[in-house]
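DM between two lab members

TW: hey, do you still have the Cyclase entry open?
JB: yeah, one sec
JB: this one, 181 aa:
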Amino acid sequence: MKVIDLSIPIEDGMPVYPGDPEVRVKIAHTYESHTWELRHLSVGSHSGTHVDAPSHMHADGATLDELPVERFFGASRLVRVGDSAWPEKRGLFFCEPAGLDCFERLASLRPPFVGGELTEELERALLGINIITYTGLQGLDRLPVDSDFMFYGFPLRIAGGDGSPVRAVAVIESGEKEGLS
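TW: and the structure you got?
JB:
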């Protein structure tokens, strides 16, 4: 088994979407002052590697705390926009830009989640049909080609949450081929 971390580290001053809150990570307590270390975090709900709930772009959409935890993990596959077929009943990840031209195919497959380099238009359309999206992922090129992996991307359980940073992880069973061909 191989575990691949697909997450961007959360750090002070990291890049954010224009207009989103700045990320601040500051030391609040030190071993010397309190006998423990503690950081104060100030992040937007869409900072770094994150999941988008339908409520992010749709006023009547489900919030994070309304979605069952089972929606945030499952068998997945790395796909290309130009592939002739995408598998059913799996999360789908794109390591190349995927736009609105992919929407009809995705809508017919109804994957539990979609991630990768998604345009804002595609994200909005997917969230509109209750397909959650993951963005800000790194290392998708390390995922297996033409075989499944397990994906885990659990959000914080934010009441009324429209999105949350996640620790996104792919678990690959031994012997599966890695990387893009």
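TW: got it. The radius of gyration is 17 Å. The CA atoms of residues 131 and 148 lie 19 Å apart.
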